[in-house]
């Protein structure tokens, strides 16, 4: 279990006694005003152009009580009993890779890579995440976290980086960072199964294969999809606590009517992706309104 702590110097640093689990590209835009405690997710810093410290200026510490995301054991057992059988694990030597968050207007894109250790007991319910309710998705995630045989790595790429290199390249970067992290811990896994129709250029020198709708075909890809999605959802829930007026906990940054209304009423945040057309239009509208106001003030 790892935490981000804000020191007296204003730097948020990660402390983790657990094995490496998470590759942070940067969370400066995800937590623009606060550092976070992240119970329920074991993690530490690894490669992938990692920002080892996150600058937090004059910010209150955002506290998350342990267990805030965890279902109680009775609820978990009840949900597990209702879960469908998991997808087959056909290629035991392969790492499954998937992402969450390509489409939203705000927040990071998160990629996960999963390898299954020989002899691991596979949890139930590891299927296409779209088949699972939010509660069951959480139950499957907790099973994956509790399984010693599930080796995984996460890479989080923030909105600033997305705007810098575009969402496709940012997704490739996240996938590459996550898969590289897993291969460092399980070097006998060389084959990569990547959800989608493209192999990231950074991974072309490996035995890599793109699998269309892979999260509905392969256990390892579905597990990666679930881990990436739940991780990103939880980041957006934390962001909602900082900016509740935007409703991030509900829509997770996607372009819903509520989100568009919040953009119009409150403007664009640092976590918004300025390279995305709806956000660019909101920025242009704000600039036009500001220019009009300035002109009116000048005339008066």
List the helices and strands and how they pair.
Elements: E1 2-6, E2 11-15, E3 22-24, E4 37-38, E5 53-55, H1 73-81, E6 94-100, E7 109-116, H2 134-146, E8 150-157, H3 159-165, H4 167-185, E9 191-195, E10 207-211, H5 219-242, H6 248-251, H7 257-266, H8 277-299
Parallel strand pairs: 3-8, 6-9, 9-10
Antiparallel strand pairs: 1-2, 1-4, 2-5, 6-7, 7-8
Low-confidence stretches: 1-74
Distance between the termini: 59 Å
Radius of gyration: 20 Å
Structural class: alpha/beta
Count of individual beta strands: 10
What's the total helix number? 8
The neighbouring-strand order within the major sheet is 3-8-7-6-9-10
- What is the overall pLDDT average? 78
In percent, how much strand structure appears in the residues?
A: 15-25%
Please write the string of helix (H) and strand (E) elements: EEEEEHEEHEHHEEHHHH
Form type: elongated
Helix content: 25-40%
Major sheet: size, sense and barrel closure? 6 strands, mixed
Short description:
By secondary structure, this protein is of the alpha/beta class. It contains eight helices and ten strands. The protein has helices at residues 73-81, 134-146, 159-165, 167-185, 219-242, 248-251, 257-266, 277-299, and strands spanning 2-6, 11-15, 22-24, 37-38, 53-55, 94-100, 109-116, 150-157, 191-195, 207-211.
Model description:
It is a single chain. The protein is α/β, with parallel strands linked by helices and 300 residues long. It is 36% helix and 17% strand. The chain has eight helices and ten strands. The chain has helices at residues 73-81, 134-146, 159-165, 167-185, 219-242, 248-251, 257-266, 277-299; strands spanning 2-6, 11-15, 22-24, 37-38, 53-55, 94-100, 109-116, 150-157, 191-195, 207-211. The strands form two sheets. A six-stranded mixed sheet has the order 3-8-7-6-9-10, with helices on both faces. Strands 4-1-2-5 form a four-stranded antiparallel sheet, with no helix packed on it. The longest helix is centred in the last third of the chain and has 24 residues, at 219-242. The chain starts with a strand and ends with a helix. The model is unreliable at 1-74 (pLDDT under 50).
